[in-house]
Design brief:
heterodimer; A: 5-stranded mixed sheet; B: alpha/beta; 5-stranded parallel sheet; two-stranded antiparallel ribbon; 5 helices
């Protein structure tokens, strides 16, 4: 039996493969468009639901008793969680359909971390966690897109709060590498941890370590994918070091100003 | 006399919520669901405050403000409402003459405070 394939047959196979790849790309882009449209359309009724619930909660249509107020407040909290998830899907769809760009400036990472710390104070207290930030005062300025860096930090901290039981610790640290002119930021926690087999998977789109319908955590599975896109746009790297039951330490790097 | 607020919003679900909110707080409220209706309503009776959704079925919300300015019927204050919390939307709206850019859903107490401060 001949093992040689003639050039014509190879070319035909190549053309078939290229056609199949083209079709897959078209379908992928249709799915992304669908995701973007549906996310956008979900937001309108949700906005109305939240506004009506706030009108009721604040007694604008008459007084409510404590239990009624608590019940309506839960509608608002749930609605706002849904809005955050929709915003995440829209961000992902936008990043998939057009090239992402960064709006770079030189900014103080200490200020961003302070701001993130402030924004999370009430959540930290509610979840009975301790949040510590150790950032050297002389950390060089970061060269990057402030909003996107803030988004990455908020995402990593949000995950740390979600997966760390009450009484646990969450921390943010940063240090500069003089040789590479990069800063390294760590967001760590004493939470449930991630098995090494899943360290790559969690950064993949739509991936969740526990994908069952009965899983305890319900999210879009896009947060870390977006975080990785944002970090890589800066020429940085993001990774995790963790063992099950041993907490997690997420790291990412960003370019910084020359170290004086 | 109660300040008059024109809500320009194509979703009836949202405009009806805003109408209840504002009317129970003593404002007189008009609603327009398209840019054309908004221009007609505001030109006939310029509102003290216009809550302007930036995405309307017949065009960009900011075009309403431009047209009203051309007709010398600029509302007292225009507050843009958008689902897109991004720098470009913010900059465009402020450059077009909006006093503030609010991201939907605006918490009701925040909305009431802003309208009360701006219409005082």
């Amino acid at each position: 039996m001949s093992t040689e394939l003639d050039a014509e047959s190879l070319e035909a196979q190549l053309a078939d493969l290229n056609r199949a790849i083209g079709e897959l790309r078209d379908r992928d882009s249709l799915k992304t468009q669908f995701l973007s449209n549906i996310a956008h359309d979900l937001r309108t009724p949700l906005t109305a639901i939240i506004t009506h619930a706030e009108i009721l909660r604040d007694g604008l249509l008459g007084d409510m008793n404590q239990r009624q107020r608590e019940s309506v407040s839960t509608i608002i909290t749930g609605g706002r969680q849904l809005l955050d998830m929709i915003a995440e899907i829209l961000l992902y769809a936008k990043g998939s359909s057009e090239p992402l760009t960064i709006d770079p400036s030189l900014f103080s990472l200490n200020e961003v971390i302070d701001q993130v710390n402030q924004l999370n104070q009430s959540l930290v207290a509610r979840k009975e966690l301790a949040l510590d930030c150790y950032v050297p005062a002389d950390l060089p300025l970061v060269h990057g897109d402030r909003d996107k860096v803030m988004h990455v930090l908020m995402n990593l901290l949000g995950n740390a709060f979600e997966f760390t039981p009450p009484g646990g610790k969450v921390w943010v640290t940063a240090s500069a590498d003089h040789d590479t002119c990069m800063v390294q930021i760590e967001v760590g926690d004493t939470g449930r941890g991630i098995a090494p087999d899943h360290h790559e998977l969690i950064f993949r789109e739509f991936a969740q370590v526990d994908a069952s319908a009965s899983r305890g955590h319900h999210g879009t599975g896009l947060g870390l994918t977006i975080a990785r896109r944002y970090v890589e746009l800066h020429g940085g790297r993001i990774w995790v070091e963790s063992e099950l039951g041993q907490g997690s330490r997420f790291f990412f790097t960003l370019p910084c100003d020359r170290i004086k | 006399m109660a300040a008059h607020v024109l809500v320009v919003e194509d979703s009836l679900l949202i405009s009806s919520a805003l109408r209840i909110l504002l009317e129970t707080n003593g404002y007189s409220v008009g609603v327009a669901g398209t840019a054309a209706d908004a221009i007609e309503a505001a030109a006939a009776s310029p509102p003290d405050v216009m809550l302007l959704d930036l995405t309307l079925p017949d065009g960009d919300g900011l075009s309403v403000l431009e047209e009203l300015r051309a007709r010398e019927a600029t509302p007292g204050v225009t507050l843009a409402m958008t689902g897109h919390d991004d720098d470009i939307t913010r900059a465009r709206s402020l450059a077009a003459g909006c006093a503030a850019v609010l991201v939907k859903p605006v918490p009701v107490q925040e909305l009431l405070r802003i309208i009360s401060e701006r219409s005082a």
